[in-house]
Amino acid sequence: MNKKKKKKTHVPFRLNILFFLVFVLFSALILRLGVVQIVYGDDYRREIERTEEVTVNNSVPRGKMYDRNLKLMVDNQPLDAITYTRKQGTKQKEMVETAEKLAKLIDKDTDKVTDRDKKDYWILNNPELAEKKITDKERKQVEEGELEEGDLYKLQLDRITEKEMEIPKEEMEVLAIYREFASGYALTPQIVKNKKVTKEEFAKVSENLDSLPGVDVSTDWDRFYTYNKTLKSVLGKVSSSEEGLPSESLDYYLARDYSRNDRVGKSYIEAQYEDILQGQKAKVRNVTDKSGNIVDSEVITEGSRGKDLILTVDMDLQLATEEIIEKQLIAKKRMGNTKFLDRAFVVMMDPNTGEILTMAGKKYEKDSKTGKSAIEDFALGNITTSYTMGSSVKGATVLTGYQQGAIQPGTYFYDTKLKIKGTPAKGSYSNFGNINDLTALKVSSNVYMFRTAINIAGANYVPNEPLNISSSAFSTMRNSFAQFGLGVRTGIDLPNEMSGFKGSETSPGKLLDLAIGQYDTYTPMQLVQYVSAIANGGNRMKPHMVKEIRDPVDNNEELGPVAEDVSPTVLNRLEMKEEWIERVQSGFEKVAMEQGGTAYKYFGKKPYTVAAKTGTAQAFYDGPNRADYSEPQDTMNITLVGYAPAENPEVAFAVVVPWAYQGHSGHNMSKEIGEEIMDTYFKLKKERAKKGKTEETTGLKVENGKEVQKEQAEIRKSQENE
């Protein structure tokens, strides 16, 4: 029987090998995917979703300033602003494109655009032409390490021509905007425009924010001065948003977590109290993806505006004093022998606490363009300029005489001209005969002070004979004067205070001049510190402009609680017996309140009592026009120091009028100013007492702060409308 054979299907061996290899590869792939997903999945997921956290500090408005009666002096005026915040990784071309769009919506000043800005912009827009400005040889020098890459860019800048830098006006605005874009840190808002932003501009930008990446609209601020120029130089300046941190203090501020475009105090109170006025910045943590896009923002610290300063100044008294000075300057300038008179100063201080009630100064300034002169604020001159003060310092001379044993209370000298061999006779303006220390102060005897200085030096005066003194006598007198604050910095809480100038000659005649205030120079602030030390019985008080520091509150129109009281500081105690100081106090009172005193005419019949000392000093004109004269010009400085009431001092004052007149016959501007400011002081005190407002120390502090602030709001509103 024939069996039919079955056919076998034979799969080629090579095909089996192929199937096996495919199986192995798929198995390996699956295994690898398993490892990636199971073992390393979280790591890769984190890498894909990797973000970066960047903390940004946002500026806040500065603290305000008030006078001692809570009248607003410095505030923050809100401004509409257009800002730009650059993302990390934003390219320059992208910023230029945004700047081009924004330039069509706003007007931007181009004054700040520099030649360097133009060159950078040209290179940005003409990269190929810029490359051609570098030679192959120079590129090779870079490869060989002879030049740096940065050197090539400098060469490109240097080789850009004037013609290439010519930019059309429309494009200049783009450049000005781009300049602002590029000057800020990534993720930090940069002010593009905050001055004169019109409502139309603000609206247009707001409507087009979707097409302006990084651009936003917000509110900025500017300093507002309620009293215009009054004390403005003392209050200081704040840098603009364009200036940012001052270059000379850049490292200092950057080390304290400031940004380069932060606005800071540049001078005086604004600079001195920067840490307090600046406030606590808002901190925002921005979370960005790999492309630099912000995917989340978290507020770490809300931030708060700066703390407020309550100054010691009484603005009612300050304004009245400035008006008095201006009136006197105008009137006296009309006299025939006052061509050098151009300034006057008044400082009023609480002698018990060092609080500055008034710091007034005025001077004529000539406009460089028109050539016309106008009276400008010069309050800073009270600490930045010094003059010979004349007989006002004789209280220090008498007390130094007591201390050194050169005289005793009640010592008599015969007042007649001293004749020292080889020098002109030196005397008082009149021969007063035999007088004691009290009469010497009352009539302002020069001879009494000369004889005191001679005794301090341990010398012996013989008429028509040489006077031999030791140069150490100058140090003795100057060290003693320094106890009062004369010839040394007062320590006031303002920068750039000068200490005055000390004469370098040590001849006998110069020692006698020093004793009557006609040799070394002092500032008006030193003069008021000196007389305050006599008024309060021997304490040299540190003058200060800030009385309190207040915490900010949510309601921007109200004052917060007191964060810190500025306590009175005694810098040193006079090394004098109490009875000596009382003796000089008595002499000062005779000057103003007793017939024959040099200030009696101005204070003798007042309803209040004053202790004072007048001064006249021969000086040389060294003002702004001194270059117009080939030889030194003789002038007279006139001064007045004092305090009131004489029996219980609550205010001390110093009046200084440099270069008041020429010759020995002039005017009494310093005494007239002194009379008027004291009349004003006690008039204000009386008026406030009638209104039921409290008196503290000086009688010039008011209690109803809310009422004052309401009045101030009305004043400010009217000024803004103007």
Automatic annotation (TrEMBL):
Pfam families per UniProt: PBP_dimer, Transpeptidase
Domain Penicillin-binding protein transpeptidase residues, every copy: 345-679
First-level EC class: hydrolase
Presence of keyword Ribonucleoprotein: no
Region named Disordered: 688-722
Keyword Transmembrane assigned: yes
Reaction(s) catalysed (UniProt annotation): Preferential cleavage: (Ac)2-L-Lys-D-Ala-|-D-Ala. Also transpeptidation of peptidyl-alanyl moieties that are N-acyl substituents of D-alanine
Record EC number: 3.4.16.4
Membrane topology: Single-pass membrane protein
Recorded metabolic or biological pathway in which this protein acts: Cell wall biogenesis; peptidoglycan biosynthesis
SUPFAM superfamilies linked: beta-lactamase/transpeptidase-like, Penicillin binding protein dimerisation domain
Chain ranges of the Penicillin-binding protein dimerisation domain: 59-296
Family membership: Belongs to the transpeptidase family.
The name this protein goes by in its record: serine-type D-Ala-D-Ala carboxypeptidase
